[in-house]
Amino acid sequence: MLSHSFLYTPLLGIAALLTLLFVWLKRDELGLWVEVEEKLPETRYFVLPDQRQMAYGIYGAPNAASTVFYFHGCPSSHHEAFLLSEAGRRYGVRIVAPSRPGSGGSTFRDNGAILDYPDDVLALADYLNITKFGIVAVSGGAPYAFACRQRISRPRLTGMGIVAGIYPVTSLGTAGMKLPSRIMLRVATWLPGVVAWLIDRQLGTVARDKDEGKMEALLVADMQQDSTPQSDKLAWEAARPAIRKAVVMGVREGVRYGGQGPAWEMKSLGSHWGF
Fold this sequence. Notes:
By secondary structure, the protein is of the alpha/beta class.
């Protein structure tokens, strides 16, 4: 007769395998994707032809054939692309997110125009051997996506999506924007140095603090302002921890190196885009 211990060992193995299979099949419902993605990918660096440094991150499915470039908002950085990392992994899309000059570790450039940015994007795409790609641009990243549409040929740029993008304020005005944003855009056009000082004083000092929770507290306080649309408040309250982390890290790294980058970008956004 077989002993109980002889039967017990293989049964334990079968039970363990069935448990692992169940967990894998139910990984989305159990929130395991979020747990895996809690650790942000490391920042990468690329030296552009003019010797400027471009900081960027790769999210989603790093080895996928399909590639989408993510253009962050302002002030923010490439870490913001963490928002789409789960979706990219699920649907097999590599998300390449560069930080624009002066943000996220990219070299500041005070004489760059919006129409110059496609050259930076193409240089990074060539470096990564990306032959064709799409673009997703959020908020202040929208003009840079439109610039790429102007400068990059259709076979290489396969498509483009704009999410809550800023519009040309020189022709359409700033009605509907939050008052602080309207003021900053106007002032930055003429006095970017003043705006840089304000950004660094209000956000930069918090971003450089070792306590990462201070930046989130600052953003939460901003969300609670009367001028914040109710839809934004509800979206923030409903956001998962991973989503909030992406927003907080995006802003934190976007201003940690100073306010010059975001201020010059606001100057560009508030002026004629050049096309």
